[in-house]
Amino acid sequence: MTKLIDPFGREITYLRxxxxxxxxxxxxxxxxxxxxxxxSHSDILRIxxxxxxxxxxxxxxxTRVRLTGxxxxxxxxxxxxxxLLSEIPGICDLSMSTNGVLLSKFATRLSQAGLNRVNVSLxxxxxxxxxxxxxxxxxxxxxxxLEAAEGAGLSPIKINTVVMKGVNHDEIRDLAMLTKDHPWIxxxxxxxxxxxxxxxxxxxxxxxxxxxxxxxxxxxxxVINPNAGENNQxxxxxxxxANYIKFPEFKGSIGFISLRDHICSNCNRIRLTADGLLLPCxxxxxxxxxxxxxxxxxxxxxxxxxxxxxVSLKPENGEIAQVEVACSGGNPxxxxxxx
Length: 339
Ligand code: SAM
Ligand code: SF4
Known about the structure:
alpha/beta
């Protein structure tokens, strides 16, 4: 098997699979209140189609898969999908991003189906604020989901917090303190300019992640992965766009993710949208359609060729500007691309 290597020498080993564009929340930074225009059910890849693509990708060297959305746990057949993917021999890390609302119902069965770990979105520990940010959700359901995930042995648990100045930045300390007693990884994500949510990159809501990190280091946290570059650290599982610190004696650690950091040179991932477009880069509008050939009866070799083609089109650097252009055209938000 020839590995998936892009024209800039990056080996692609990580596939993010969006399983739905639907969501049970409407987070203010991700979706407008009325929701987004949804794809028709027939356009969304079926469970067997998703599993087939991952199987073919695994034959090309994809070893890590993250399921995402929309909200992953509202997808019908999600347990069956996890089960199918966990049986693919080459996939050694199978994870899921979720808003956690339904996690307490699913955690045990997800673990039994073969899921390794979860990333749970959590932007606040205040119930009222949670309702304001998500427009629909109840904080207690997410906290119950985290507990259930821990009980089910999904590990490590990562918590994703989008930091917004004037919205939740005053809770950074409290959220970071979750790592004192739990072996969780709390990751602070800089708000990104997706979707026409009325917020612009660089506007007052953006809180530079590096400031938070530096302040924590000044308060005694230490860098866990000192061998990687300042803005381009590898995450603990591979080459992700996060970098990590830890307070002595704390069980968990704290990560930082910012699109403004130069993450492209380490990028090892491609994304599959729920309707079957393979995107070589989150910050570009290049895509390769897998659904049409799949439904036209293409064999595995042909689909493998299309995956290689997408990798060959991966740009050296993504452009945030491209995303803003895409957004103003009513195109992708992270909920559509699969965050
Ligand atoms: N519904 C799941 C969830 O919320 O975790 C999975 C999909 S969601 C699109 C994936 C991640 O994207 C979440 O952690 C969310 O916080 C993040 N996200 C969405 N819009 C964002 C934005 N404008 N800036 C930064 N992160 C964003
Ligand atoms: Fe839904 Fe996740 Fe987007 Fe929130 S961030 S609206 S939970 S897809």
